[in-house]
Design a protein that fits this description.
238 residues, alpha/beta, six-stranded mixed β-sheet, 8 helices, binds magnesium ion
Length: 238
């Protein structure tokens, strides 16, 4: 089953087209990595799926439902950004609970979800701290926790590890892979980092200048790149 279907999706800013009629089917339960150089349209594509950016043409469906006119808050997805976007004046606990409190969810259910997310991300000790008292890796865990508590049907990640130092990035890659294995939720993960793409994805879509060059498993892209761009970008010997 398809979790997300993009059909002929286009985006223009002030008459300049930056996404050129993308077709892409993301399967339910897969970890799809959208990879490509800076400026190729990855964030734009993700933001259109999230409903944070209007699409200029085409259709986006989440599951069976066409969401072109559905606001972001009603798309049943969670997005994690590079910049964490935590509320600085709130404790970690409040940061995690905030979106749920807004939904008027019963208190015991909020507490259950916060405790569960804290356990998965190993931030149980940090719940009473403020964001400024956290390291970069801890902040990113909280940002991921905030996405998890909503129990969405889809996770969107926009370069969530690119602010972390190299060692932590490798560690968080493993943690995200574990999270994916544990939750089994569909994930779309944007990065410009080929190593991240090759190690984390069940499938990779390679983007260049607003077009998808190739979609396939890491094995397929590495061994059978369709063109020189894909080969060079993926680091294939061919
Ligand atoms: P990526 O995430 O792959 O680095 P983006 O999706 O951010 O790329 O950007 C794709 C293209 O669209 C770039 O040329 C960028 O300059 C342009 N762009 C992105 N957002 C806007 C905007 N709000 N207004 C005008 N141009 C934009
Ligand atoms: Mg981007």
């Amino acid at each position: 089953m398809a979790a997300v279907t993009l059909s002929e999706v286009r985006k223009s800013y002030g008459g300049l087209e930056v996404v050129h009629g993308i077709d892409l089917e993301v399967k339910s339960g897969e970890f799809l990595v959208l990879v490509g150089p800076s400026g190729c349209g990855k964030s734009t594509l993700l933001r259109m799926i999230a409903g944070l950016e209007e699409i200029t043409d085409g259709t986006i469906a989440i599951g069976e439902r066409i969401v072109n006119d559905v606001p972001a808050s009603q798309r049943n997805l969670s997005m994690v950004f590079q910049s964490y976007a935590l509320y600085p004046h709130m404790s970690v606990r409040k940061n995690l609970a905030f979106g749920l409190t807004n939904l008027r969810m019963p208190r015991p259910e909020i507490e259950r979800r916060v405790a569960e997310a804290a356990k998965i991300l190993q931030i149980g000790e940090l719940l009473e701290r403020k964001p400024r008292q956290l390291s970069g890796g801890q902040k990113q865990r909280v940002a991921i926790g905030r996405a998890i508590v909503r129990e969405p049907q889809l996770f969107l990640f926009d370069e969530p590890l690119s602010n972390l130092d190299a060692e932590l990035r490798v560690q968080m890659r493993v943690e995200l892979a574990n999270l994916y294995n544990r939750l089994g939720t569909t994930m779309i993960y944007v990065t410009h980092d080929q190593v991240e793409a090759m190690t984390m994805a069940t499938r990779i879509a390679v983007l260049s200048k607003g077009n998808i060059e190739q979609v396939g498993t890491p094995y397929e892209l590495y061994n059978f790149p369709r063109n020189r761009f894909v080969a060079t970008f993926i680091g294939s010997p061919k």
